[in-house]
Amino acid sequence: MKEEKFPKRVLLKKKKATEIAKLRPEFLAAVDEYMKSMEPLERAIRELLAQGTSPEELLEWGIEAGESEEFVRATINAVQPNALPRKRRLPKPGKKIPPRPKDN
């Protein structure tokens, strides 16, 4: 039986690296395009907040426009950190909340 020069694993890694290298420019172009499309939205959020519109009102408008609450919250908070209070998740049903220690 003849020994292989390169094990299959090494060849697969090289092939995968080549495929990744080909996809990298496509990924970077898509990220760049996405970021450019977000600039007008970010500018509008900054201007509306500066004019006195509340972040809660912006959140309401975004939800009315059909966007998910998570997306709108994340976008507003990315432009204006801490503009909206964090949304706390309630414990799942069946999960026990530890009792508070008693004061003595």
Give a quick set of tags describing it.
104 residues, 62% helix
Describe the model.
This protein is an all-alpha fold and 104 residues long. The chain has a domain at 8-79. It is built from three helices and no strands. α2 (55-64) packs antiparallel against α3 (69-79). The longest helix is centred in the N-terminal third of the chain and has 43 residues, at 8-50. It is flat and about 70 Å long. The termini are far apart. The relative contact order is 0.07. The model has no long low-confidence stretch (mean pLDDT 81).
Roughly what fraction of the amino acids lie in strands? under 5%
Compute the gyration radius: what is it?
25 Å
How many helices does DSSP assign? 3
Helix-strand pattern, N to C?
HHH
Percent helix: 55-70%
Low-confidence residue ranges? none
Query: What is the average of the pLDDT values?
Result: 81
Structural class: mainly alpha
Distance separating the two termini: 80 Å
Outline type: flat
What is the strand tally? 0
| Major sheet details | none
